[in-house]
Amino acid sequence: MKSTIIPITPRYAETDQMGVVHHANYLIYLELGRMSWLDTLGFSYDEMEKNGVLLPVYNIDITYRKPIRLNDEIFVKTTIKNIPTTRVEFYYEIIDQNDVLHASANLTLVFTDANSFRPRKPIPEFLEACKKLF
């Protein structure tokens, strides 16, 4: 399981007057995909934070290819790119039911100590679970 796929149906509040999903909502869709990926691996942000680890965004790069519209059925595919170090990198594809690519994204999170806010290694259990994917 290097990838997970979740369905999403955009809601009215996520669109503009033309019925097109506002670009900022793509970040929410990516986060939903990432949370599902973590759940499938057996982890959560909450669990990481209880272990003194924060995961702020270091970098995000989104390419918008085709607008998503109100009530489109879309799917967010979330993939871990490599074995985490002090960073974990994800690749995303947002596709529709016809496999048309609407957006792609690369996102990097940094494992950060909750007290010092300094980069740190991931918790050992998370790292071991990720290594098994490769």
UniProtKB/TrEMBL annotation:
Signal peptide: none annotated. Transmembrane segments: none annotated. GO terms for molecular function: fatty acyl-CoA hydrolase activity. It comes from the Bacteria. SUPFAM superfamilies: Thioesterase/thiol ester dehydrase-isomerase. Keywords: Hydrolase. Coiled coil: none annotated. PANTHER family: 4-HYDROXYBENZOYL-COA THIOESTERASE FAMILY MEMBER (PTHR31793), NOVEL THIOESTERASE SUPERFAMILY DOMAIN AND SAPOSIN A-TYPE DOMAIN CONTAINING PROTEIN (0610012H03RIK) (PTHR31793:SF27). Belongs to the 4-hydroxybenzoyl-CoA thioesterase family. NCBIfam families: YbgC/FadM family acyl-CoA thioesterase. This is 4-hydroxybenzoyl-CoA thioesterase family activone site. It comes from Nonlabens tegetincola. The lineage of its organism: Bacteria, Pseudomonadati, Bacteroidota, Flavobacteriia, Flavobacteriales.
